[in-house]
User: Fold this.
Amino acid sequence: MRITVTVDGTKYSDDVEPRQLLVHYLRERLGKVGTVVGCDTSNCGACTVHLDGHSVKSCSVLAVQADGSEVTTIEGLARDGQLHPVQQAFHDNHALQCGFCTPGMIMQSIDLLADDPDPDETAVREGLEGNLCRCTGYQNIVRAVRDAAAKMSGGAGPEAERVGESQQVAGGGN
Amino acid sequence: MTATIEPEVGRARLRKEDARLIAGRTRWTDNLTLPGLLHMAIMRSPLAHARITRVDVSSARQLPGVIAVFTGADLADEQGSLPCAWPITEDMLSPNAPSIAVDQVNFAGEAVAVVVARSAYEAADAIEAIDIDYEDLPVVLDMEAAVADGADLVHADLGTNKSATWVFDSAEAGTGSEVEEAIAGAEVLIERTYRQQRLIPAFMEPRSVMVDPTGEQFTLWSATQIPHILRIMLAMTLSVPEHKVRVIAPDVGGGFGGKLQVTPEEVLTFLVARRLGKPVKYTESRSESILAAHHGRDQLQKLTLSARRDGTVTGLKVELLADMGAYLRLVGPGVPILGAFMFNSIYKFPAYRFVCTNVFTNKTPTDAYRGAGRPEATFAIERLMDELAAELDLDPVAVRERNWIRHEEFPFTTVAGLTYDSGNYEAATARAKELFAYDALRAEQAQRRERGDTVQLGIGTSTFTEMCGLAPSRVLGALAYSAGGWEHAAIRMLPTGKVEVVTGSSPHGQGHETAWSQIVADQLGVPFEDVEVLHGDTQSSHKGMDTYGSRSLTVGAIAVVQAADKVKAKAAKVAAHMLEAAESDVEFAAGAFRVRGAGADATSVSIQDVALAVFAAHDLPEGVEPNLDSEATFDPENFSFPHGTHLCAVEVDTETGRVRIREYVAVDDVGRVVNPLIVEGQVHGGLAQGIAQALFEEAVHDESGTLTTGTLADYLVPSAADLPNFTTDRTETPATSNPLGVKGVGEAGTIASTPAVVNAVVDAVRHLGVSDVQMPCTPLRVWRAIHTGQTDAGGLGGEAGGGLGSMGGTQ
Amino acid sequence: MIPAAFDYVAPTTVDDAVRALSEAGEDAKVIAGGQSLLPVLRMRLAAPSKLIDLGRIPELRGVREDGDTLVIGAMTTHYEVQRDPLVREHALLLACATDTVADPQVRHRGTLGGSLAHADPAGDLLAPALALDAELVVSGMDGRRAVPATEFFTDFFETSLRPGEILCEIRLPKYTGWSAHYEKFNRVAQAWSIVAVAAAVRVENDTIAQARVGLTNMAATPVRATAVEQALIGQPATPEAITEAAQHAAEGTAPTTDGNADVEYRQHLARVLTSRAVTAALST
Assistant:
């Protein structure tokens, strides 16, 4: 089947097997190996990307289902060499160790901040319940998300992903 | 140039590693590809014990994109036997351990056929087309049944399911007295049987391996903790010359002991690539990882503690059964032996006896998992100390205090024969109690009991130590381990003054690049940013013993320090020449050489100046080689003994059995700290894994030997929503066994936390008649324990609850 | 893991979808949000010949009012249900239960209709649908028909959907002014319910005037705790009255035994959680 998908701002048109998972399309066809596969049952969340502005587990979406959609991966967050504030916060708060869960954690964190720009600790923990990390015990991840929230004013999600608007997002204040 | 003033060691440096990890610019093995790369898939036995009677791969071979299909028979002659490097006794029984079963399968998940195809999708399709007939054999699952007379056998040719029995007796060793005498004369006896459930390491990155055969040379990339050991073992197992094998561990996504292995998958990928002469990659699915990568723990502990009525312990007897699974893996037999020295923990037992029998069952082999032997031991002794306190109606912390080694008694040689170099259990405990508000929580507990609240409060204590930093080659030799415990490092001074550090300790999330940079920055007086750490490639890092057992800092980093010393010694000769001074008159400080006593304004040459001068080599002193590069191999005299006090408060809902952690305080003493941020992170992660053992995780098999917790929907790795916020702090008692004063930290949190949580659960409901709840303390188990006294409800043999029972639905 | 190959079609109208489904034969499967189906396909626990994707049929999506009835398109995602003001106002119980489904990513893709048609007795939306007297409108080659929730769920993962039929919308009487709570009991946040209780009550003059209680994972199908409802009606909203009524919660249930719970424990939990669900509902 022929699909057309915009991934990290670039439009791709490809023939794919209907059974191809979105995550495999991203990794194997587009070389977007920043998005990883951690399980078979959509429990771990490592493959989280944004599909039309909302977080999804790309192992549980078929590439054909993404036809006509916009996908943002971890590789599409930084703008002009500047990290997304959530990426920066993960670094600043030592919110990763091995880093395998990190792309999915960051993508889900951005989504959660889009829905709730000022989450308390419980809200962050619940917002990340679909993402597993085996290294950090989550404490610094929670801290990073709240730190990012404090530094972002314009919200996250689709806003933060729009090319050219990263300054506003990173800027703080209203 | 400006030298670093503030020492790097001790600074909370943000990690160098993060840049690529937060941007998705990682090099996981599965991210790598090669021209013409083929993909391998593995067909695994669905049965735990069976003879293979017929294998038909003809349909699979016909499928599009399929390059080759191999069965056990096809690879039998060249696969060798997977290595076991720890023959714990001279008479240990070790069955042949094939990477792919030839005529019999001994655990569900064992490889029975492999497919190589153009794509992973085509390989997966071909697996479905393979037809194998089996003839069932009796399944051996329960350890006690396995060692009984007339038991069915996992390996009929061995004639028994017992692999080895290993004994330590303090009377025989001369480190203590006779334990049976202590027991006979005991005023109080605490006898308990505890079960260490089987766990699954569940590192986040599934294992992956890629092999590129280029002429005579093989390059193997693997998500492994042990590239160096793997290279040696491949050479020894597959009769391929060691110098023709290069192993690379690129970015590795967690290990926790689970990637401390020479795996069947690595061997099979190697064999298949060699046979085909083409690059081949295999990446496991999560289900395969859970099923077939080695498991951890799985012990049955029969324990007898003798004491006086004042709470003074007089003896400890430990009788273990340890489940090896179907085969002995790399260090599997030695895992319970690492625990042998830790049951006595921080306490002054006069008499101690440890007997462990390693047992074969038709389950996935077990091997190292974070803590490896020491969490099991720590759990047992810390649970016993709480039981002793309850028996004597004493405060659990007071009982520990009565028996622990006082800080002025260090160095202290224990009843197990280890010499603890340093520690201050009083200080860590005092700090923990303060942070925990111990007395206030005890008061609340009393009130809740009095009111008969639905939700009861429990307080659990764990005052732990561990032996880590594996370690002294001499000791490992005495324990019959096949290798040493040294570590290697090299430092290369580049002409522009930048520094490359080569370490043999291969990280998988720990932050070596940052910590080693800090250490070298201090040692050589160069900026943190000017240091690059190279690791995980046997071509660049040619010598190493890799990462496990909390050894990287206490062994590997000391080798780095020693290599830096050698660089400075070489540089001093050149610097003296440049300063036109005698070498003995030159001193090195803050990255520069000066004539001693010449004052701060005097001429100096920086180490970078020296590096450039050596590169040019135009004017070197007589007989001096134009090279500052140096290497060192460090073999410590002793293990490292971090310790700490963990306090946990749980709320137990007595109506449902649900446990909620309300407060968790961990005060750890890991000696001097290179990077407090990294140390804290290690503690957090360790706590999460230890708590997961206490409350959530268990690998469960049904009566046929099928793993019913075969996905992350059934094997419950906790999420952020399931864990509390931790309060962590440190005391700092420097190690005396290494020049940095550091101790290991990687396993501490895991070792300490499990008993703290279970002690808290039991404490919450002890007044309701509960003295034990088996791990994991599920709501069902806790509720049953309260209402019927049964401690192991819903245990072995059950269906996993929930999960993908869900095969039908339509939409 | 990787699904077996299948054909795929994404019709844009219900009529086309129904036609595609009946033409594709019995090995075809409908995919809604796919959040249960895709893991099953990846594990190769099912290998349909063809997937009929309902994701591109606009008429299946959205929430609207139809007189005294609330109508939710089958393909409305959990995320949309959670945030829909009409659902909050007229079917609060469904919103509460939807809040607890899986995790945020899954809620972005998963759909109400998909969950109901999947008919996992541990699924969280079946009991609310049953308790709220939902009517499920299905379409097939023979036209549309409405199936009451009481007749829709027939067994573990089995519904009264006939071959070739598609669930199109969920119709609920309005429960305007009712308070509600979904009390879920599981071992970790993203796990399925061991037991859960869906409770909605309407209070008049401090007396429980109406009550609806549904149980999750207490039988092969969701269970309506009618005895509890009867016991609650007319009672004062006091802890004693609620606890006493909740004692009837296990009546008529037939739960299974697994590693997380046995029959006795599940029935015990049903009573405890019913009491808590009703209490929490009353305090909303």
Summary: Chain A has two domains: 2-74, 85-171.
